[in-house]
Fold these 2 entries.
Entry 1:
Amino acid sequence: MSEAILETQSITMRFGGLTAVDNFNLSIGKNDLVGVIGPNGAGKTTIFNMITGIYEPTEGKVLLGGKNISGLRPAFITQQGIARTFQNIRLFKDLTVLDNIRLAGHFRVDYGLLSSIFRTKKFHAEEERLKNEAIEFLKIFGLENKMDHLAKNLPYGEQRRLEIARALATKPDVLLLDEPAAGMNPNETKDLTELIRWVRDKFQIAILLIEHDMRLVMDVCEQIYVVDHGELIAKGGPKEIQNDPKVIEAYLGTEQA
Ligand SMILES: Nc1ncnc2c1ncn2[C@@H]1O[C@H](COP(=O)(O)OP(=O)(O)OP(=O)(O)O)[C@@H](O)[C@H]1O
C-alpha cells in the first residue's frame, strides 16, 4: 500500500449512552479502493460523518495527508480534499446538469470577494474556465448531451453518475461513496462497478465506499473493513473477508434476528 492519504486514529462517537463507533482505525493509501461493510446500524455512516466533519469524533483524530482535520466544518474539509456522495442522492435538483458541476468547481476557486462583487475581468475569466472545465467533466461522464436538462429529470443511474461527477469537480484527493448502488437495478450496478474502477484509475485518487451490495464490494474493493456494533471485526482482501468466521457470524446473526 502507498503512503496514507486518509487515516482515522481511534475515532469514537458516542450519542448519549450509545457508542455508535468505538476506537476505529483506518488507513488509506493515495490510490486505494477501500470498502466499509457491516450490518444495519453497525456505524458505517457515522464513520463517514466523522471523516467529513458532520460529526466531531468524541475521541480520536481524522488525518488527511497527515494533517488533523477532526472538528473542521464540512465545507472546509471539502476544500482540503475530501468529497462525498450520499445514500439518498443530493443534487441541486432544480438546477441544470451543467450548473451542478459548475457550482462544485467553485469550492476550490478563490477570486476574492471584491472581484466577484465588481465582476472584474478576473472573475469573468475564472467563470469561463470553470464552465469549460464543467463541460469537460460532463463529456468524461457521458452527460454532455444532457447539460441543459434539470438534474431531477435524469434517470436514477445518471443522477448517481452526476453526483459522482460533481464530487470529483471539487478535485478531491479522497472520494467517499455512501451506498452508491442503493436503489439501482443489476445493470446500473454493473455500470457503476466499472465506473468506480475507472474513476480511481483516471483521477488517481483514493476511494472509500460503504455498500450493502456484496457483489460490488467484492468486485471493486482491494481492502475491506468490516464493522459490527461500532467495532472493527475484520480487515482484509475480499477473499479473506468472505471466509472470515467473525464476518459470517455478524451477517448470519443479523439475518436470523
Ligand atoms: N445522530 C444520532 N443520534 C443518535 N444515535 C445515532 C445518530 N446517528 C446514528 N446513531 C446510531 O448509531 C448507530 C450506528 O448508526 P449508523 O447510521 O452509523 O449505522 P450504519 O452502519 O450506517 O447503518 P445502515 O447500514 O443501516 O445505514 C445506530 O445505532 C444509530 O441508531
Note: Strands lie at 4-15, 18-29, 33-37, 59-64, 67-68, 82-85, 174-178, 206-210, 223-228, 231-236.
Entry 2:
Amino acid sequence: MSTEPVLQVRNLRAYIGTPRGVVRAVDDVSLDLDRGHALGVVGESGSGKSVMARAIMGLMPGRSGCSGQVLFEGRDLLTLPRKQRAEIWGKHIAMVFQDPGRSLNPVVRVERQLTEGMRKHLGVSRTEAHGRALDLLQEVGVPDPEKRLRNYPHELSGGMRQRVMIATALACRPTLLIADEPTTALDVTVQRQILDLLRRVQRSHGMSMILISHDLAIVAGRTDRTAVMYAGKLAESGATREVFDAPRHRYTHALLEATPTIDHERHAPMRLITGSLPDPTAPPPGCRFAARCSHADAACSDPGPQMVSIGTDHEVACLSPVQTSTEQITGGELVGR
Ligand SMILES: Nc1ncnc2c1ncn2[C@@H]1O[C@H](COP(=O)(O)OP(=O)(O)OP(=O)(O)O)[C@@H](O)[C@H]1O
C-alpha cells in the first residue's frame, strides 16, 4: 500500500464574492492527511473550517474562487473533470454534516438511501445491498435494523438519524470521511456516543477522517493529528497529543484556556479570548491573531510568520511561540526560525 498521504492540500485558497467584498475564507492553507489517520480541524466559528471542507469536496457556491491543489490519492480534485470528480465523491470521499436533513432525503425510506450508492458505485444486487444495509445499521448501533430500513428519516430520533447518515456515508467504504461538526445538534451523551462511533469505524475500516469542530474537547482523544485554524489560515498543526499538551501558538494556547471541557490542570482557570476575528474581507497583513495577542510586536505584522517546523511532527506560524519547559531551562533555539 502507498505510504503517500491520502490527501495533500497545497496552498488552498477559497475566496467568496459577497456584496461587502471578497471574503478570504481559506487563505493559503497546506496540510497532509495520512492513510488511515484522523485529522481534527479546530478553530472559532468563522475561522474557515467548513469552507475548507466544502472546497476539498468541490462543494463551493458559484461565486467563490478556489485555487491551489487538493490532491486526493495524487489526483487534483480542483482540476479533475466533473464526471471523474463525481465518481470520487460518491465512492471514495463521503461527508457527514451537522444536520442529517442535508444528506438524508425526507421522502425516501432508509433502505433506499443506504443502498442507492452501493448499487450505483459498487454494482451490487438488490439482495446483496439489502444484506449490507442491515450489517451497516448494526455496525453503527441502530437497533431492529430490519424495521428501520422501512422507516422514513422523520420516524427516527435525532441520534438515530445521525447514525443512519454515518451508515450511508460508510456504504461505499470510502477512503476518506469528512465530518463537519457532526454532533452539534445532539445532546451531550448522544454526542459522545456518535463521536466515539466515528472514531471506532474510522479505525476498523482503516479509513482516513477529517473531524471538524469548534470544540477542542471533541477532537482530543479522537484524532491522530490536529490542525488549528484562525481567520482562514493555519496557526498550528501536529500530533494531537503534542498540540494539546504543549501548544505553541498563542492562539491555540488561548483556545485551550477557554475550553472548560478539557480537564487539564495547566490550562485552568478558564479565560476568555478577548476581541474577535478580523474582517475576512480585509484581513491584516502578517499574523491575523496579532490584534488579540499579548505577545505580538511589529514583526508579527511585517511580514508576519510562516508555518515552520518546531519539533517532530509539529508546525507553528508564530514569531513568539509558547516555550516548552525544556526551552525555558536551556534557552533552546527554535527549529526553522
Ligand atoms: N456562502 C457564504 N457566503 C459568504 N460568506 C461565507 C459563506 N460561507 C462562509 N462564509 C464566510 O467565510 C468565513 C469562514 O466561514 P466558515 O463557515 O468556514 O467558518 P467555520 O470555521 O466553519 O465556522 P462555524 O464553526 O461557525 O461553521 C466566515 O467569514 C463566513 O462568514
Note: The first strand starts at residue 7 and ends at 18.
